[in-house]
Design goal:
This protein is an alpha+beta fold. It contains 28 helices and 13 strands. The strands form 5 sheets. It has a 5-stranded mixed β-sheet with strand order 6-7-8-10-9. Strand 2 and strand 3 (123-125) form a beta hairpin. The longest helix has 25 residues, at 59-83.
Amino acid sequence: MRGTYHENMARRIATALLLSMSALLAQQPGGVWRPEKAREILDKTRTLRLAPEGAGLSAGERVAIASLLEVGKIFQSVYENQLHPQAQEAQAQLASLKPPRPDLMNLYRLFKGPVATTLDNKREPFLPVQPEAPGKNVYPAGVKKEEIERFLAAHPEKRAAILDPRAVVRRATAESLRSDLATLTKYPALDTLHPGLRRELSAGPTPTAFYAVPYAVAYAEQMIRAHELLYQAASALQQDDAEFAGFLRNRARDLLTNDYESGDAAWVTGRFKNLNAEIGAYETYDDALFGVKAFYAFNILVQQREETERLRSAMKGIQAIEDALPYEHHKRIREDIPVGVYEVAADFGQSRGGNTATILPNEAYLTRRYGRTILLRANIMRNSQLFEGSSSAWTASVAPEHANDLALDGNFYRTLWHEVGHYLGVDTTKSGSDLDTALQSDASLLEEMKADLVSLFSADKLKQQGYYTDAQLRSVYASGILRVLQNVRPRRDQPYGTMQLMQWNYFLEQGLLKFDPASGRLRIDYSKYKDVVGKLLERVLDVQYQGDRGEAGKFIDRYATWDDKLHGVIAASIRNQQRYRFNLFHYAVLGE
């Protein structure tokens, strides 16, 4: 009798564990963390439970959510596999430890795998697995970027396939080719949907060659099952929300074709009733090798309809914001932005962990055709416990006269206009290349900094239009300062932390911020805010437009510097009052 996907997976993991655990323990560096080392991190971890009411949901919507949750669990497993090749073995090892180690299980959930971020911002395995690789598990084990670059230089016709955002890169060994061919044989639909792939795989092993396999094939069993579940959810929703049901069916097909256009078009242009969902592989932050590979995320969102309608009305007229940006290559944009305010029911994969907002899709050709959708997570952005931590960091960092500048809505509106900022400004280089292709691993860093700066640059104009009060403008500006302050020196492979440090340094250089060594705090000259932000935004837009990765690297290196006598003092002040460094989320809809 055929078992369920999860039962079959459990049997495979158990078999693999019996065959390989001895070798794993003997060969891998390090070992199982001691309880006291795990406790250092868990003592700095706050547990939050998300439990949206969902009072207006129909019976069909509730049935659909049950199927969608199963898709989320599949995506969670795939994401963990994308991050580390031994994720499944690590889970099995955790389950086999005697006595049980719930502390390590919490670490695994918190960090979505067997590698933790320590309090000094280092990445360390807490189980006997291999160290984390820049290419995670979407490139061949041990591969160097230079090796792939040499291959692409010799075979430029392979560049698009190798650097495709939704393709796993493999070495052309007999074992890999045989395995992928077997997948096409097992799933004829995939063989049909990916013409030419069988012919390429049949060419035979080449020791120095690489090839790319679409995610639909690399994760075939999981995507086939997700396709089935999404169709089940669509059937349950058809009577209550035909547009959302249509999106789910389109996205189900996308997972097998590896082409997201139909689903993205339905997602961005649809007007859904109560539910929404992010489904698929989009963001590239986890790829520290080339910065191009997308990683799986999934979430289920319950719309706050009245607030969504108020927000959509308030955001009309953003073409004027685009036209005011400090660059010459302005574009026409959709003014009816599909923005929504939601409560998170459950997050999986890359999006799990307190993500405040999302704007997708990312591909420039799709955004030109259909626009993008903005998803604001109100039960994250307005969570009083999270804001309490932000307020403490703020008062520990700034002079007393600024203590009351920050308010909860400041973070909300700054985040909203950060997401709108992704809509605006440069989206291709002067040569017409996508930013990800031209700037590679620095593309995400620069794009996030651009969005940060657009949210702050546009604030004064929005105040003039009556969108902000004086107090709200001051709070948005304060939120922009808090955003850049770091509690630990960021690693270069952390795009968010690095671009925030760059802003911090630029603000200091230009006099918007001034550090007082006597008090160890920062003073803010709000009169300089608009001009300083505008100058930095102009620089970022130009770096994106030029598309020169070497020049982008020099720009980043200039401003991503750290001085322990300045940055270190502020960081220590934040850490000293900071009760929590990490947030572990539980979800009522999952029975947690």
